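Human: We require from you a standard protein entry with sequence in single-letter code and fold as tokens, and nothing else.

Assistant:
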Amino acid sequence: MRLIFCLIILLLFVGCQEKPLEITIGEPISEVSDKYLSVAIDMAQVIGEDWWNPNASTVLGIADDYDLEPFNFENGKLIGLSKELSPAYLRISGTKADNICYFCEDSKFTKERFDKIVNFSQQSGFELMFGLNAKDWNSGNAQELMDYANSSISIYEFGNEPNGYVMQGHKVNGEQYAEDFKEAEQLVPKLAGPGDAFFPIVGELFGITKDFLKNHNPKIISWHYYPQQSERCFIRIRKADDLLSYRKLDEVKKHANKLIKLRDKYSPKAEIWMTETGNAQCGGQPGISDTFSSSLWWADHLGLLATLDHQVVVRQTLAGSDYGLLDDNFDPNPDYYLSVLWKKLMGTTVLKVSSNDKKVRSYAHCKDGKITLLLINLDDSFKETNFSGELYALTSDSLNSKKVFLNGELINEIQPAFRDKVVLDPLSINFIVLEDSGVCS
């Protein structure tokens, strides 16, 4: 009896032992733009109006009684930090972009403001993406903008979240949007749309994407997605928290796959771009969106969308409020450092990768003749791997801290550490540079 009891205990012990981490790197599955990770400045910031209140007071999700200076595009620190994110698109859009008259007498959007945007974009190594006013579509006023902009705008997006116009007392259907889109398309070199907002859990409410694609074949299909909502949001489908559940991280796949099916059916040659995303809608959640917790989500979000045939992902915002890569003083939040490492290490060729551990998210890209493997450890325990090579491991002293450590040292400059055997720290983001096994050549 004692022998049987001991055998049962031994079997239970063996069964509870964690399986060795197994990561398999396969063949290329997609290509992304060299500007895959891009950034945004909201039109509300550009003109200094209706931006997210730092005290989170809101009127239907819009900042109330908050004086905001127009965005300082000439700040030297901002320009220096932005250069580290080049090449990228700089998207100028947002809710206020659908309420703008370009260079009109009483408009805050002046030629001087536009010139500052262009100068900043050029100094930072960005290409300009501009959101046209589709809610109050006026082809004549749009032509004035294009004539003045000349070739300084690389791509336009037609409107900002037209499925949300109903919240502004205006509603547009997919057929009408398609007609206006066609007219705008004759004026510009490159046009994306419709940029509908997809919400956590429920997806595209009052959506026009399907009807738009039934009536037109755009070259770029755009959409917006936030996995959760901050306290500033009038309606919160999912309250902001740490996004460490693989179910929450994988939710974007459901919405992306729906969009891919629509693209394949109605406009199979179109690219798919996520032209607005961030950790939490309505300015981000203080203490979450501006901490290391967000970086775990951001790393996974970038990795996952690259495997889902997305050519570009635009982060809201480059700077400002709680979801910015930089804060209101242009100091880096943790997501900024993650973004710099992505730019430095992740190339445009996306590889198929699999992991036998749901708590270790795995992605890989080809870069300069080598493989960069991205492993995100969402577990609170160490994970041993069989990989050796250059390691860039990001950690923090707590999930909701703004401190970021690179290979155990408070981050200052980007330098790798060589490891004969890479061990993943708990709650860590790990870029491992490997020699090419033949898949990238």
Observations:
- The chain has two domains: 21-28+350-435, 30-349.
